[in-house]
Design goal:
CATH architecture of the largest domain: Orthogonal Bundle
Oligomer: single chain
Number of domains: 3
Shape: elongated
CATH topology of the largest domain: MetI-like fold
CATH class of the largest domain: Mainly Alpha
Length: 406
């Protein structure tokens, strides 16, 4: 009798855990999903309130008597929601009432109403202790002096099937007839506006060279500190590792002065060469190489293999998870680097911009079109996201193997 109860408890526990995980995963993914969908919207759709996730386009129709296609809106026609076309907007309408009967209101176009007594000698009347101007308003076939209670702006809506039927309604409060669609041309627009294609090429070049450079120096340095014996090895390694604790902002001024002396300011070389050496990567590779069995190396040395052959043909093929972890971290750092490119690359030198700089400039140029800004952000986010997804398996494998061997 206890077995079904135990299984039920496990099922309920698993259901609760997975529900909580799915909810939090959805919360974390929602900003990215909204960014991606908004990059396919029209500018007007990005300012809609309340905001919507999926992009939508207004539906238009041709109406007899009108040359241009008119947008469709849902209009209240005697209690029934119908699709009407917006023929005119920004029509000023006033609500008028007789001074002695404010509850009986009449709505009229302001252009159809004239001041009582003429524009120069307009008459006034006291209403609730306030002096109000009088207007000649037609009501029930008669011209009656009335006061203006309020004004509003409406639109003229016509029945697409019968253009003679017209209704008047507040356009801002009316719901347009829309369909779900997408505008991939936003990506072409953002590329044409800011030259994202050149910035993307520069970013790919810088990221690949920095990643390959860091992996090469980390492998060589990590192997030297893990396997080679030379005077002061441990002291040098501790000193090198201690540089991780120095904040990057402390390096900016001396590093920039060095770039000025070398002549690398405003050049992509300044984004590559200084970052191909990393104490973190060397430490990561050293810790991995220490776990590699020495017996295999000794057997290779007996067979006449050199240190380079052992490293290239034996250790590196067996270190794919660690190398993938190092490569993933380096790729993400190099791709998203912003502060150092902002310092060393001039804002006006667009041919050497990377994506982070191009997006920073785009933020000002396309401030009235958030869809283009988010399209540029999507271009910058998707490549590192794909790399992280592809490298995640090796990263988990590296952590798991390190735990077992430790």
């Amino acid at each position: 009798m206890k077995l079904p109860s135990y299984r039920l408890n496990r099922f309920i526990s698993a259901l609760v855990v997975y529900t909580v995980l799915i909810v939090f995963a959805g919360i974390m993914l929602f900003p990215f999903i909204y960014m991606l969908t908004t990059s396919f919207k029209l500018p007007a759709d990005t300012f809609r309130y309340p905001p919507r996730v999926l992009p939508r386009d207004p539906i238009t129709t041709q109406v007899i008597g009108y040359t241009d296609a008119l947008p469709l809106y849902y209009v209240d026609d005697h209690g029934t929601q119908k699709e009407y076309a917006l023929a005119r907007s920004n029509i000023q309408v006033g609500t008028f009432a007789a001074p002695d009967s404010l509850s009986a209101t009449v709505e009229k176009y302001l252009t159809e109403v004239k001041p009582t007594g003429g524009a120069m000698t307009q008459k006034t009347v006291m209403v609730n202790g306030k002096e109000e101007k009088l207007y000649d308003v037609e009501a029930n076939g008669k011209i009656v002096p009335m006061v203006l209670l309020s004004t509003t702006t409406v639109g003229e809506f016509v029945d697409p099937q019968n253009p003679g039927v017209k209704l008047y309604q507040n356009v801002r409060l009316s719901q347009p007839v829309e369909k779900i669609s997408a505008h991939p041309e936003n990506y072409n627009d953002v590329i044409a506006l800011q030259g994202i294609d050149r910035a993307l090429t520069n970013t790919i070049l810088v990221t690949i060279l920095v990643t390959l450079g860091q992996m090469a120096t980390s492998v060589v340095g990590g192997y030297a500190f893990a396997r080679l014996k030379f005077p002061g090895r441990d002291s040098i390694f501790v000193f090198y590792l201690g540089t991780i604790m120095i904040p990057f902002v402390m390096f900016i001024v001396p590093l920039y002065q060095l770039m000025v002396v070398i002549g690398w300011t405003d050049r992509l070389a300044a984004l590559i060469v200084p970052w191909i050496f990393t104490a973190y990567g060397t430490f990561l590779m050293r810790q991995h190489f220490i776990t590699f069995p020495k017996e295999i190396e000794e057997a290779a040395l007996i067979d006449g293999a050199s240190r380079f052959q052992i490293l290239w043909q034996i250790i590196i093929p067996a270190s794919i998870p660690a190398l993938a972890t190092q490569g993933t971290f380096t790729f993400l750092y190099a791709w998203n680097s912003f502060l150092w490119p902002l310092v060393v690359i001039n804002v006006g030198n667009e041919k050497n911009h990377v994506l982070t700089l191009a997006l920073n400039v785009l933020r000002g140029r396309a401030s009235d079109t958030p869809n283009l800004i988010l399209a540029g952000a999507a271009i910058a986010i998707l490549p590192p996201l794909i790399v992280f997804i592809l490298g995640q398996r090796f990263f988990v494998e590296s952590v798991a193997s390190s735990g077992v061997k430790g």
